Amino acid sequence: MKTKLTKIIMSSLAFACALVCLVAVIAPGTSAPARAAADAQVCSVGMLKGLYLTTFDGYANLAGNHLVPKALMEGKRMNGDGTWVDEFATVNIGGTFFDATGAAGTYTVAPDCTGTVSAGVGLSFNIYVGPDGQKVWFAQTEGGLTAGTAERVPGR
């Protein structure tokens, strides 16, 4: 009886300690200054300036709703004025590779950090710009089904 009671007490104590540790880790969350800074961020096209390593994967829409797998890796130079150019780009559509270096287009960024990216070949994306323009998330809205990210390359 004493052994069983000791086991129950020890189990309850271990559970309580685990619960306290979990609350201690979760409760602080994001600090108030960090939350305030993120909420106060106002974005603009000027935030996106420099070379971004961009990767996408998804499906290209070929010949009227014929979806073909695609993947892309590019070095996208954002000029800080709403224009961009690919300094290098490798595209794989359905197993066929090609070089898209030199592709160019435009982008917009609203104060709420949402925006668009367009290429002159019928491709459009909605974007979200992360803090200080270090990272951008893409979701294709025209010309296929693709999602991707871009991260600024330090010093470039």
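[next item in queue]
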Amino acid sequence: MLRPLIVCLVFLAIALTMLSWTATADRHRFAEFRRTHNKNYSSDAEHQSRYEIFVNNLAVLANLTQGLSEEENIYGVTQFFDLTMEEFIQGYLIPEETLRATIQEMRRDATPYEPSPREKRDIPTCFDWRNHNPPVITPVNNQGACSSCWAFSAVEEIESMWALAGHPLTPLSVSQVVDCDTGGSDRGCSGGGPPGAYRYIQSAGGLESAAVYPYHASNGNCGKHAYQSEKSVTSCNPGFSAGSIVARFSSWSFVTSTYDENAMASFVANTGPLSVCVDALTWYYYRGGKKSYGEFRCHN
């Protein structure tokens, strides 16, 4: 009986040692995560709670990446790893009821895009507006802890269409839409939809530039709001002014409400970039790379 007991004790010691190594490694990864994403917590209790959430997310990540090569792996530790999935959904994604309302508004208020027979037939296998000269695509933005992707989607398409019409490529104000568009199902940092954004922009007469009305990742006052400048000095923006409008449009249409990929490809190839909203639930773990259609669905 002595030898089996010794063997069991050895295995137990090895198991405990491995658990200790894993816990130490997790602590190091959490410390690195905090430094990378500038995470600060208000108390030791919150620190421990966020650490436990982080460790749980590491376990999910291990399952997601199991068997994937480095080339295939698009998942990794992201800035959201100290949030529960519920917190991520509430803080960054648009509620399902808002998306349903957006589709209804789109079908009610806009004319569907109808490609010509030639446009339907002559769709290239590869097309990228980022390669256009002169440029018609502005840089990627970070919406922060604000469910404003709907406003970015609408505004950035207008930026491209404005440039394609022969005007200088100008970053336009997303916060103007977030702060001032309060009609229909649009609720600022609580979500909204591109159709409502287009209606608001038309009624306002257009958009100001992002330089005049910068993005602040929060619900602001359309008349006046404070924002943090690059020099970390709190400045005061006078808010929306019709006299400062730099881009406008006269009409808009929807490409498809039934996830028609051929219609979307035809529009992109023949007209310009288009505004889409996607189900970004799996982007909680997304670090970069190409995602296939099966990994997310469009709410166009």
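[queue empty]
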